[in-house]
Structure prediction request, 394 residues.
Amino acid sequence: MFENLTAQPADKILALMQAYREDPRADKVDLGVGVYKDASGNTPVMRAIKTAEQQLWEAQTTKAYTGLAGAPEFADAMIDLVLGTSVERGRIAAAATPGGTGAVRQAMELIKWMNPEATIWVSNPTWPNHLSIIKYVGLNLREYRYFDKDTRAVDFDGMSEDLKQAKPGDVVLLHGCCHNPTGANITTAEWAEVISILQETGATPMIDIAYQGFGDGLEEDAAGVRMVASEMPETLIAASCSKNFGVYRERTGILMAISANAAATKLTQGSLNYLNRQNFSFPPDHGARLVSMILTDDALRADWQAELEEVRLGMLGLRTQLADELKRLTNSDRFNFIAEHRGMFSQIGTTPELVEKMRADSGIYMVSDSRLNIAGLNDKTVPVLAKAIVDAGV
Ligand code: LMR
Prediction:
């Protein structure tokens, strides 16, 4: 039977991780996968996570199953973190998932169940795994214009024009903040405009928020999600704790489904539980428990927020350094967009050939769509990257 298998396409981000590992050059620079790294290239366990792990080790008396939706305190804490008080708790169904990717997958299965004919509208470009999961689940896919390759900012006119073609029953997938891969984000006024379009078309929003706290701050990064959730009758939200809590391998995420009323919420909650049961039964608990401990303990939360803020400001500093260095080398402002972008990524808007050239000539590893992970840089590698960009003729 196994001879019936065919080779699957490699995920370009994961393939790049492998190529980087295999490169023997000592001065290679990894700007690929979206994992935070400090100035020495390490991905540290956050202080509050370490403390919570110690406390958990002392206090935990059982590893028996949680609920199908995970521990209720995790859902409550994450709803509070992402949504604040923007939506009544009685309208929100939620289930813990293996990472934010798990939440995206469960959401797509839920959509397929509710409307097998739904078209999912995704930004062009978007995270490659969005496309892959949507196709795998068998839903229709359409792209809306998003990134203007000349200005390296959002092409909001193109985006609105395309989204106006969505139909009732379609789903519009938006990035809550820190757009992956571009780093270009819509403004508060543009979020309001997107909400009007959603209301006119009858399409349902789904928001993937994987980098809350990496852009303009924890509250600021959730502002768009909260606006949508408070104004739309129904919203799906996939949230990840991988990056902002640094618990990548613990697979910690959550799917929230906001429906119009309590009766619909009850039905949705049952459906989320059922979907978890079919796909993996109980969701992973360790990371989720650490997250809920941190979010509900004043001291742990303060320490986590302080460290997250250091991470965020560090990335902003690297953005400014890189933009300044490119300004110095090119005698122009054309790379200022790097300082304007937010989050872990910037798409510099060049061809796969030039990305390949930077890899071959200078050992710079960025994704072929020219996305670079800002957190992969440090004081020493900023000038190396800037020079490689200029030498390659970007
Ligand atoms: C990324 O975009 O690099 C991250 O979200 C990691 C991944 O799984 O692709």
Q: What stands out?
A: The radius of gyration is 21 Å. DSSP finds 15 helices and eleven strands in the chain. The pocket of (2S)-2-hydroxybutanedioic acid is lined by residues 13, 33-34, 127, 129, 180 (CB under 6 Å).
